[in-house]
Design goal:
Blueprint lengths: L2 E5 L7 H16 L4 E5 L8 H14 L4 E5 L3 H9 L30
Parallel strand pairs: 1-2, 2-3
Helix pairs in contact: 1-2
């Protein structure tokens, strides 16, 4: 499967960027893209606008095809963790097991 790239503007995308990036992403899927990779390497000074952009892109992609965010640097990862949206990167939060993994149950654990 061919992966199509969508590059985020840097150093800090804003909420104003969200609308046109979502339109571009929707067009990519309409033109036949099955998997889109959102390249976040240029985001070196993220703010809440970057969080909004990524969240809206994820919502735009829902049900249309595969979508992954790549190249996220430490500041963006930290900000997404702070606002509780690290799952946008396809990673589990530190206190949660990865998707598809169930915690073990011991025989003497109470029900609940």
């Amino acid at each position: 499967m061919e992966i199509t790239r969508l590059v985020l503007p840097g150093p800090s995308p804003t909420a104003d960027d969200a609308a046109h990036l979502c339109v571009r992403l929707a067009r990519l899927y309409e033109q036949g893209a099955q998997a889109v990779e959102c390249d976040a390497r240029a985001v070196t000074a993220p703010g809440l606008g970057a969080v909004e952009v990524l969240a809206r892109l994820r919502l735009t992609a829902r049900g249309r095809g595969d979508f992954a965010i790549t190249g996220a640097r430490a500041p963006l990862r930290a900000l997404l963790g702070l606002v509780g949206l690290v799952e946008l990167l396809g990673e589990a939060e530190q206190w949660e097991p990865p998707r598809g993994v169930q915690e073990g149950v011991e025989p003497d654990d109470p029900p609940g």
